[in-house]
Amino acid sequence: MLEGCPSPNGPPFAGRLQLRDEASLNVMIPMGGSNEAFREAGYTSPKPLIKIVGRPMLLHLLDNLKLRLGDVVWLVMPAALHLQYEPQLNLKNEYPAVDIRVILFSVMTRGVVETLFIGLQHMSPADLTRRVLCLDCDTIYFSDVLGDFRAQPAGKGVCFYFKDTGTAALYSYLRVEDGTRVEEVSEKKAISDMANVGAYGFPSGQLLREAIATVLDAPQGIAMEYFISNIINKLLSGGHVFDALMADQYANCGTPAELEAFIEHVSSGKVPSLMIKRRFCFALDNVLVTEPTKPHDYSTCVPIEKNVQLVRELKEAGHHIIISTSRLMRETGGNVGVVIATCGHETLRMLEQFKIPYDEIHFGQPFAHVYVDASVACASGVDTAKDLGWRVNSTPQLEPGMVAARHFNNVQLEGDYVVKTASRCAWRRRGPDECRASHPPATAPPAADGGGDLTTPGSPIADGVSSLTLQRIKGVTFSHLITNRCLTPGRLKVFLSTLRKVHSSAGAASAMLPLDELDMGANYLPKVRKRFETYRPLYLSLSKRSDDLFRMLEAYLAEYEAEKRFQYAHVVHGDPVFSNVLLTDKGHIFLLDMRGEVGSKLTLQGDLTYDLSKVYQSLLGYDYIILNQPLLERDAELLEELRDTFRSFIAENYPQVLMSDVVKLTASHYFGIVPLHQNPEHQAAYLRTASALLSSIPKRESARSSPRPLPRVPPLSPVEPS
After folding, report:
1. I need a labelling partner for 641 at 20 to 30 A (CA). Which of 111, 167, 270, 488 fits?
2. In whole angstroms, what is the distance from residue 97 CA to residue 90 CA?
């Protein structure tokens, strides 16, 4: 409900900026938790979409909020849920005057606080200054929690509670002093009878975001840390004040038992605010009555009692009942007049006999074997294709959290294992013991074939191709973290520290090559030159400036090699882009797909600046390209914050590395990967980014000059190659 709205038919968000003031609230409703209990109870829709009297639970929640102009509602939900159920929610038509912002994510978050963090990352600096009220998506609030929070002094948080008289500690509980001042929040431990109702107010979005970031950045997280109660305790320990406010008018629908008890309450007419009269349309045949036991003799139909009773109760509650039937439509060729003349009287007599009430009856529904309707097929929790028993031809779907392998690699999931097939997997044999902790373990000690490649026993090898079976690690790639705005500076530092350990490794002495046999420049100019010469027509089709761009890169890389600015390390990763970095549920970093090759030599030795430039490649938006995600202004701002973190880490931990070298090598990567990807839009984006990076380098810069910040280049800068 929106208070103070002049007309529900006016412009959707008219005047919202002018009316937004310090009393305006950010109302955040995170979604995405487990639905297992409801599935086991027979519900097929996600919990917020389960219907109560024909209307999704989430809409009932929104209906009962006392919103005012200037408030913003943030619905933070999985992208898959929104894609499937958006027509059912129909938010623009349901709430034309409410500023509702739907924030989508495609990662499995580790708890409600990470889901909230994603929503907060979408807020502007102005949004973050305003207060935030977080609401559980499975609770309907009849108490005016917005009004009560709005009335609190600025700078104070709130916890809304009810008196829990049960014997089991099912909620989080408050310990208070002086009647209202919160001293502690305890999860699933009844330290008082004041149980949280799932509504929490915070003094500002910025404060909440900072508090959550400290939890997400912790290297080893446990499940309890991702509850809102933990965030409030952190803020309490930092001197922030929270008051406990009573909100005893609510409906908790968090478990099947609680939902069914509430629906029973609603059905008995005890919740007037939910008893808006609605129109329900039921098919007659095979829904309310069976098929006739004698063909075409409708007097032999029998009622389907559970559905008939549902119709009776809905009608008794004042709802409008419509019955439709396709009887005899196929036999009469769709002649409705003949249908009514033939079976109309018998049908009406049957409805009276079985005491099936109705307001309208429609003969002449077209005959079909399957009916698809937005309120039925798409509301079942299984997509329409599955409801129909049909396979839609489409691009193969990846497991959540996976990034598609490039065309020269093949990655398959086999239960708890991952099988990678590629030209070489030599790093596994040559990797030193101290680096193995940051890599998924092989299922058996890998054996080398005659060419020095690695396989697990029994792996097929042909034409220099090897396969390697690794333990499957449950986690999320940095690619998905960054594109979901969930990569914090702290998480980036954890990854960079892991990479620093790799670079500090002494390596395996038995696998070391003499330095005079190691061509440190082999992965730079020779590789880029070969690709450009081989695919020059492709480059020129993307940009007429490609020759000029190559000449610039050629000069930079030749100078880099001639002056031997390589930063030698016994062990380098070789390709630490974010798709090769995995964050586990416990906050551990795993590095995937080490290259183990310099030129044609199998070795883990190399130039650590190469690794750093690959990280910088991702910090310039590479993952948005490969995942086909739009890079918006807010994404560019967050990437710049992460690049600042990266530059500071390099200055502190790699003082010998010049950022100008990192930028030049990154430009060469973007230029060189153009022909490795088959999507023309991706190819053009790589070339634009390479051009933007090269344009940012001062023409007369001395490589030996002290490091200085380069001009900030937005990722995928709209530099149009002429």
Report:
1. 111
2. 13
Tokens read off for 73: 């509602």
Q: Do 153 and 57 share a domain, yes or no?
A: yes
Last residue of a domain, one of 611, 634, 657: 657
| pLDDT tens profile 128-141 | 999 999 999 999 99
Q: What is the DSSP string of 671-700?
A: HHTGGG---HHHHHHHHHHHHHHHHTS-TT
- What tokens appear for 632 in the block? 């918006």
Is 185 domain-assigned? no
Confidence of residue 433 (pLDDT cuts 50, 70, 90): low
* Coil/strand/helix, residue 666: helix
CA distance 106 to 481: 9
Of 64, 74, 85, which Cα lies nearest the Cα of 29? 74
CATH number at residue 573: 1.10.510.10
In which element (H, E) is residue 535 found?
Answer: none
Rounded distance between C-alpha atoms, residue 292 and residue 286, angstroms: 10
Q: Which of 476, 487, 479, 407 is nearest to 623 (CA)?
A: 479
Q: Find the angle CA(75)-CA(120)-CA(233) to the nearest 5 degrees.
A: 105
Amino acid at site 525: L
Phi/psi for 115 (5° steps) reads -65, -45
Three-state DSSP class for 141?
Answer: strand
pLDDT tens digits, one per residue of 289-311: 999 999 888 999 999 998 899 89
Read off the pLDDT of each residue in 231-252 and give the average, rounded to a whole number: 97
Do 612 and 490 fall within a single domain? yes
* Residue 320 CB neighbour total at 10 angstroms: 14
- Pair 381, 428 in one domain: no
The CA distances from residue 578 to 401, 437, 654, in Å, are 12, 18, 20
pLDDT digits (tens, 9 = 90+) for 97-115: 999 999 999 998 988 999 9
Distance, in Å, from the CA atom of 599 to the CA atom of 577, rounded to the nearest integer, reads: 19
List all residues 6 or more positions away from 125 whose beta carbon is below 8 Å from its beta carbon: none
The reply to whether 121 and 228 lie within a common domain is yes
Give domain status of residue 683, yes or no.
Answer: no
Number of C-beta neighbours around residue 168 at 10 A: 8
Residue 555, in any domain of the structure:
no
Burial class of 163 by CB neighbour count within 10 A (0 to 12, 13 to 18, 19+): exposed
CB neighbour class for 605 (10 Å; exposed up to 12, middle 13-18, buried from 19): buried
Residues 418 and 482 in one domain: yes
CA pair distance 169, 656, nearest whole angstrom:
57
In this structure, the answer to whether residues 455 and 587 fall within a common structural domain is yes
Query: Could you give the number of structural domains in the chain?
Result: 3
- Distance between CA 672 and CA 528 in Å, rounded? 5
| Cβ atoms 158, 176 nearer than 8 A | no
Structure tokens at 193: 């009878």
Q: Can you give the residue range of the structural domain that contains 103?
A: 2-159+198-245
**pLDDT of residue 371 exceeding 50:** yes
pLDDT of residue 691: 96
CATH assignment of the domain containing 22:
3.90.550.10
Q: Is residue 559 part of a domain?
A: no
Q: Which of 221-225, 461-465, 655-659 has the lowest mean pLDDT?
A: 461-465
